[in-house]
Design a protein that fits this description.
With 198 residues, the chain is an alpha/beta fold. The chain has helices at 23-39, 51-62, 94-103, 115-129, 147-158, 179-188, and strands spanning 10-14, 42-45, 67-72, 87-91, 107-110, 137-140, 171-173. The N and C termini lie far apart (47 Å).
């Protein structure tokens, strides 16, 4: 009997434009790209052909997957827009970039990255906190990369700057291969919106 669980048709991946020092980071990016292609899930990403962005896109394309890049005009050359993306959207600003990526995606995945990746993570989590969306947000804690950040989120709750339950805004997995299953499980059984006082 065929599964009736929702299919993850598109996944937005936020990640670094650098490869990082641990080869596990690029390996995870490639594993995720390959898994997306095998699942028939479109990759939506920042459009670069370098770093983890490039590794994810290259693996998705190698597997016959669809890849949609979204890059601001002023970063097109600096981030070296991926020349083989199935579709490349050049937008005027960073804000429109994030809005476009949001609109094109069923869920979000965060791989290792720098301050730009953190900006994207916190914005999409904030939008969920404010009930502007309830799409799955999967953090891939490759080799413990995000462990300190996750501790900071716990600290925010413990010190009264986030309400109990806000840790449910994201789902944490250790392996890129777990991302699709985690996202599809949440699409099948959405998390209730986190209640908060203003």
């Amino acid at each position: 009997m065929p599964s009736t669980a929702p299919k993850l048709t598109s996944l937005c991946v936020f990640c670094g434009s650098q490869p990082g020092v641990d080869p596990a980071y690029a390996a995870a990016a490639a594993a995720l790209g390959a898994a997306l292609a095998a699942n028939g899930t479109t990759l939506v990403f920042g459009g670069g052909r370098v770093g983890l962005m490039g590794a994810t896109a290259d693996a998705a394309l190698a597997g016959g997957g669809k890849v949609v890049g979204v890059i601001p005009d002023f970063l097109k050359d600096k981030e070296l827009a991926h020349p083989r993306a199935t579709e490349m959207l050049v937008v005027p600003t960073m804000h429109i970039r994030k809005k476009t990526m949001f609109e094109r995606s069923d869920a979000f995945c965060i791989l290792p990255g720098g301050v730009g990746t953190m900006d994207e993570l916190f914005e999409i989590v904030t939008w969920r906190q404010l009930h502007l969306h309830n799409k799955p947000i999967i953090v891939v804690n490759v080799a413990g990369y995000w462990s300190h950040l996750l501790t900071v989120l716990d600290q925010m709750i413990g010190q009264g700057f986030a309400h109990p339950g806000h840790d449910a805004l994201v789902t944490v997995v250790d392996r890129a291969e777990a991302v699709i299953g985690a996202a599809e499980a949440e699409l099948d059984a959405p998390k209730p919106p986190v209640l908060f006082k203003v």
